[in-house]
Amino acid sequence: MVFEWLNNQLLRMEWLSNLVKRLVENVLGFSIQDRWGGGLHFFIYDVLKIFILLAVLIFVISYVQSFFPPERTKKILGRFNGISGNIIGALLGTVTPFCSCSSIPLFIGFISAGLPVGVTFSFLISSPLVDLASVLLLASIFNWTIAIAYVVVGLILAVIGGTVISKAKLEKYVEPFVFSNKMPEIEPEQLTARERLDFAKDQVRDIVRRVWVYILIGVGIGAVIHNFIPENVISLLLGQDKWYSVLLATLAGVPMYADIFGTLPIAEALVAKGVGLGTALSFMMAVTALSLPSLIMLKKVVKMKLLIIFAGIVTIGILIIGYTFNAFGYLLI
Predict the structure, then answer these.
(1) What is 82-116 written as a DSSP string?
(2) What distance in Å separates the CA atoms of residue 327 and residue 131, rounded to the nearest whole number?
(3) Are 23 and 36 in contact (CB under 8 A)?
(4) 318: pLDDT confidence band, cut at 50, 70 and 90?
(5) What is the spatial distance between Cα 161 and Cα 139, in angstroms, rounded to a whole number?
(6) Most exposed: 107, 110, 187, 218, by fewest CB within 10 Å?
(7) What is the helix (H) or strand (E) element at residue 220, kind and residue range?
(8) Which pLDDT tens digit goes with each residue over 23-45?
(9) Within 10 Å of residue 174's Cβ, how many Cβ atoms?
(10) Which UniProt keywords apply (predicted)?
(11) Can you tell me the distance from the alpha carbon of 161 to that of 228, in angstroms, rounded to the nearest whole number?
(12) pTM score, two decimals?
């Protein structure tokens, strides 16, 4: 009961939901049972909750990350080969709270440092898809079982994707300039506790500055879906009984570009309208791992064949995950 109380108050922030309810009903004069009142409550509550959680989580994660600068990360990855290297690459991706476009410069640096292509692709898949902040945000919106299951399947996809690329020996499809762009070896700085705190605060400011627009747009779309679009319309397009729902959600996510924090409110609203859990997660994963801007950036450093293979592996993985969650997601709720 203590854990449930802490989960409800610290992650789900029921106290904040009650405060926003009073604001909407007593100050703004709306009933949260109405469309406009419910939409306002959804928007204000979700925006505040996500920003509060995001600031706290990014601060903690960045403080931990200060012990693993890129130079140290490269050294750690360089100690492993084969599937163990893919596993470590995927796990290290979880402590880097970057979007897909931000992960690509690190991907270039790892390749330049001589790390295996498959290991760097495991990192590239995992980094935007799974991070510690997204785990807690997922738990705050859904539950811990779903959050942990999402992380597990995301890591499996990253490991399998990197392993397939490694086994296929696709190094020749990386642009030559990436290999020749050797980075100087820089000894990691020994930061003081104060410097680590300053680094963590700077990371919070930087990441919030980069994602706040996507969060507002995502929560706005979620509020519209949650309160203004009839459930039968959502069900007609993305109902769990529709065989094409996961495929449609995945394809819909590709042209978009947003951080996972911006897609979570949309997934929350879709599930509340009866959309399958796997369909909502497939949309999230496609936006974060297969967004068109990130693929365009990746095309600058890899040849078309490798880009198609990478996108194909990730797309197939997302579809399998989506259909699996739709089939067995009821066990997680």
Answers:
(1) HHHHHHHHHHHHTT----HHHHHHHHHHHHHTT--
(2) 25
(3) no
(4) very high
(5) 26
(6) 187
(7) helix 193-227
(8) 999 999 999 989 899 999 999 99
(9) 18
(10) Cell membrane, Membrane, Transmembrane, Transmembrane helix
(11) 39
(12) 0.78
